[in-house]
Amino acid sequence: MKTKRILFGLLLSIGLFASSCSSDDNEGETIIPIQGKYNLSQTGSIVGDKEVLFDAPQNASGCSRDYLDLRLSNAAVIGDYNGSDCALTETTGTYARSHNDLTISVGNVSSTSDIMNLTNKELKLKDKTTGIITVYTR
């Protein structure tokens, strides 16, 4: 009898744990940490009802890819390689994440994007104003 109670309690605990980990709990919000360095990979938009992406023209030919570095301190560092010598220009601002929105501010300019996808390998953003999609990879 005691074994049945222990088994019942264990099964009940597993059931409660499994239901508490349901994807409905976060209302679609991605729970992977956003901090990290992401290399600019693709840009594009939605045409009709289809996503159209192409290699980011912002990346200078023969240079490392431009990047977005989101730090724990909420600093956002944007790296831009340009010219034949691939000179790096870094611009620092701040970022804030609210659910599936990411706002990056540099000086007096802010832009807010929907986080379309966030995995250990990819960050895909869609600018709320322009609709431009930007894909970064790690």
From TrEMBL:
* Top-level taxon in the UniProt lineage: Bacteria
Q: Which InterPro entries match?
A: Lipocalin-like
Q: Show where the Lipocalin-like domain sits.
A: 34-125
Q: Which UniProt keywords apply?
A: Signal
The signal peptide stretch is: 1-18
Q: Which PROSITE patterns match?
A: PROKAR_LIPOPROTEIN
Name by which UniProt lists this protein: Lipocalin-like domain-containing protein
Q: Which organism is it from?
A: Flavobacterium hibernum
